[in-house]
Amino acid sequence: MIASAPGKIILFGEHAVVYGKRALVAAVNLRCRVEVKKSQNYLISSPLGKTGLDFKVHPYISFAIRRFHEVKKIEGVEVKVDSDIPIASGLGSSAAVAVATIKALDAEFETSLSDRDIFEMAKQVEIDVQGTSSGIDPFVATYGGAWIFPERKKVDIKQKFFLINLGQKSTAKMVSAVCQLRSKYPEIIDKIFDAIDFLVCEAARCNDLEKLEELISINQSLLRAIGVSTPEIDEKIAKLEREGFKAKITGAGGGGCIYGIVKDRIPEGSLVVEVSYDGAKIEDS
Amino acid sequence: MIASAPGKIILFGEHAVVYGKRALVAAVNLRCRVEVKKSQNYLISSPLGKTGLDFKVHPYISFAIRRFHEVKKIEGVEVKVDSDIPIASGLGSSAAVAVATIKALDAEFETSLSDRDIFEMAKQVEIDVQGTSSGIDPFVATYGGAWIFPERKKVDIKQKFFLINLGQKSTAKMVSAVCQLRSKYPEIIDKIFDAIDFLVCEAARCNDLEKLEELISINQSLLRAIGVSTPEIDEKIAKLEREGFKAKITGAGGGGCIYGIVKDRIPEGSLVVEVSYDGAKIEDS
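^ inputs. structure came back:
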């Protein structure tokens, strides 16, 4: 059985959302596909290697299988992963692989899990691996579409986005750096989070591309203010601005991806994505 | 008679101060010297040219002379200007020339103006030329030292700063651009101004250079958020960050000067300044 789940981009509001502010997040048409087959043993194959249940090499898949045991005891399973989503780039590859694995296990072992069950289990897997989870990535990977969090309010987004990957980063490290900065300058950082919160609301109701680009640029500046940009990102964005584009970090920053809005052309070396309204689903094999 | 007055740098809080928030501003050891001599005619010599009373070429000096007439009618005066302060770079050259002119006129024509009279007259000159004045530049040029505005609370600042001039800019244009952005996104921009206000307080009581650099970087990001940075400034600051410096715009932005803190070394091509506690004063001729 093959199941797939989408990656996501955080359009606006990353980091502030950790402190209860709003964020606008969309599933995109980059998917992770997971094939599972009943077996006497555990075998996981992915671009990261071939292993058995292995909580270091394949933590999300291994914990997904372990959590699935709470629903149905299984003796073994073969898992094959094939993903369009760059790893550790803020595009939700981990949540997508967890959700797709659970969805495929559910179909293969006929456990009739609801979307809500799949989302909750994938969130639990994130907690197993990361120690914490906002639930945003597994939610978007499960349901697809664009959403305002924490309300989980649906938003309709039509425009396409360009993505540029500037290399891997550690989300945990960036979240902890922001937490430290906030404990040093609580009033300053909380006002910046408030500004981001208003910005997310503005962006969610905005259909004007020029305005959206302005909001992208403001949000990028506010991310820089909380210390998650880098000279490399600043230089890349300055270069894009000279070429007539606006761009911002999507995700934790410190590396990872930047995105902007596709108008008549796209920057060299960028990837075009659009919002995907397909959540976790079974693929024809 | 020769009088001089200092230029200034806005350390933190530019733009927000226009909306009633706090700013930290310091007079620096770059001075404008103005020599005046009684004469039957008006003759103004500066690097901008030789003119009579001329409200286009020498607006600040010409309006200063016109305002001085309210105190004492004079038939004419020769004015010579010699300034260390780069023009139209956010360093308060206009206020310094106005203040130094009034101070020199006061001494030459023995009108016994107080510092307060000189400040008020120079502020009036700014209004004559620009249509508006926060009064900050003429205040600092008159009294010297470092101050929090709008309270006019004295601050003691010991460290030196490096200055890099990235070319002339129009303060009026930048102030108007921020006003437009604020009318488009009032909640977002006001929260950013609130963040800047807290940042100014934090900076005013901070003696730790690392922390001050962090605040410089945050304030620069918030200036970028309100649209007064440029790709050129962003690139220059990114380059400085790679070299281990932090820097921000000082003044209106859109060009002008950036500054940072002098620690063990300074960036290539930068100018070192320190806070000057000398306000307007008579120079030995």
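Residues 1-285 of chain A form a domain with the Ribosomal Protein S5; domain 2 fold (CATH 3.30.230.10). Chain A has eight helices and twelve strands.
thumbs up if we can close this ticket
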